[in-house]
Amino acid sequence: xxxxxxxxxxxxxxxGVGAFADGLRRAGHTVxxxxxxxxxxxxxxxxxVGYAQEVGFDTITARGEKxxxxxxxxxxxxxxxxxxxxxxxxxxxxxxxxxxLLFGACVPVHAFGAAxxxxxxxxxxxxxxxxxxxxxxxxxxxxxxxxxxxxxxxFLYPGTAHLFAxxxxxxxxxEAAALCAERVLCFLDALEG
Length: 193
Known about the structure:
Elements: E1 3-7, H1 15-26, E2 30-32, H2 45-55, H3 57-68, E3 76-80, H4 84-93, E4 99-103, E5 121-127, H5 131-135, H6 138-146, E6 152-157, H7 174-191
Parallel strand pairs: 1-2, 1-3, 3-4, 4-5, 5-6
Helix pairs in contact: 2-3, 3-4
């Protein structure tokens, strides 16, 4: 089974992120969920992003890199929104990555290197009218990442919600979340094949 390092979004390590991780664990996968906010959680994205800005995005990313220390190389790096930054950086720069799962965000590949590493599978999940995902350039970066590569996939779901896969948030969209979880489990199972 796969080993996953899952990074939370700007709200912090919420129960919904934990529930998503538990779903992967029930399927037999090992999931690590570090707290990049050191115990802090927020009710809205603006407050959470404000905290990340105060601490520094480089510090948040460094905490994510530190969380990977001691783990095997063949890890799947996953992140929700803000958590995509350390997940994508590790997938692109830490040798031996098994894959990447990016939810609600995607950083341009050139931010962490000249190209996406050969053989590192990736799935990007987002809503087709999410103002953050679409308006901030993440959808364009995702399309560029997956263009012409058979082991890279972009899944768009109808709607405007940003944290659509997280129970307990106003953005939660059960149907999209269920389909996303199904696709993620297929992705993880395929890594073992």
